[in-house]
Amino acid sequence: MAEQNIEIRGFKPGDEQPLLECYHKVFGADPPGGARNAERWHWQFINNPTPGGKELILLAVDRDAPSTKVVGHFGGMPMKMFDRGAAKNAIIAVDEMVDPGYRRGLRRPGLFGNLGMEWFKRHQSSESYPLVYGFPNLAHFRIGNAVLRYEVIRTQPVLYREPLSPVAAGRGVEIVEINKAGEEFDRLFERLAPDLKLLVWRDHKYINWRFLEYRGFRYRVFAARDANGLRGYAVFRVCDWFIQNNCIIVDWLVPGGDIDATRELLRAGESLRAESGGPCISIMIPDNNPWFRDLQYEGFMVSPTDYICCCVSIGKQYSPYVLRREWYYTHGDFDHI
Predict the structure, then answer these.
(1) Domain ends where: 97, 127, 155?
(2) What parts of the chain have a pLDDT lower than 50?
(3) What is the mean pLDDT of the chain?
(4) Model-level pTM?
C-alpha cells in the first residue's frame, strides 16, 4: 500500500467503530489486556477524570477506502501526576498499532514510525506532557526503541506468593470491601505522596474511575481502617496475566512499615485466590521501593518477566535514571490489566 494513500489525522466523530475494527484485526477479539469495545473506549478516553484523551488520538486512514478505514492508531491516556509536591500531567501510551496489510516489514520508519513521530511532534512538550510512559513486551519495545526513542527504566520483575503457608494476621485493622471511594482516599494520598515523590494522583476520583466505574473488569477494592480512619488500600483482580488465574494486586497504597494493614490486606487477597482456585497472589512495584523487600518477608518471591517499563521524556527531571529512583507505580498505572 503506497504511503501517499494514507492520511494521518486526529480523531473525528464517527471514528469509534472503524478504530475498534482495526484493533480487533490487529490484536484479536479477546486479547490479553481485555476486549476493546465502545464502552471501554469511552471509559478510557472520554470519562477519564484527567481531560484531553480524545485529543491525544492520532489515526492513519486509508484515503482510497470507500468508507472510513482506520489502518493505524497511536494514542495516549492523560494522567494527573504528583511530582515531588507539584501537579503535572503525563501520558500512558496505549494501543499503538498498524493493520498488518499496511506494514513495511523491516523497512524504516514505515507507517508505525511515521505515525508515532507525528504523534510525539504534536503532543509532547515540556509545557504540556513532558513524560510519556508505557509497558511494552520485548517485541514491541524493540520497534519503539528503533524509531521513537523509547528508553528503558527497568526490565520489570514481579513478586508472587504461593499458598505454602497462611498469611500472618495483623492487629487493630478492619478490612472492608468498598464499591465507591470517598474523600478519605484523598487524605490518605496527601499523607503518603510526599514520601513516594512521583506517582499517579490517586485521589477518590481516580480510584472510582480506574477501578470501580468500568464494568468490563471486576476489580475488588479493599480498605484497611482503624479508629483513626483509612490506613491503606489494595485493589485485586483475578485474570490470566503472566499465568492463568493469577490473583493480582493491581494497586497498592499502604504506608511503609505498616505490617498490620499489609497482612490483613494480603489475607483478603488470599481469600480471593482460594475462591478462584488460582496458584498465587502477585504484585508489580518498582524494585527500589521498600515494599519490594518487605513483601518478601511475608512470603513473596521474585520472578523476572519480559516486560519493560519504558518512557519517552523531555528534560532531566524525567530521565530514566530519575524515574528509576523516584517513580512509584503498580499495574493500575498502565492499561494491560
Answers:
(1) 155
(2) 1-3, 106
(3) 91
(4) 0.93
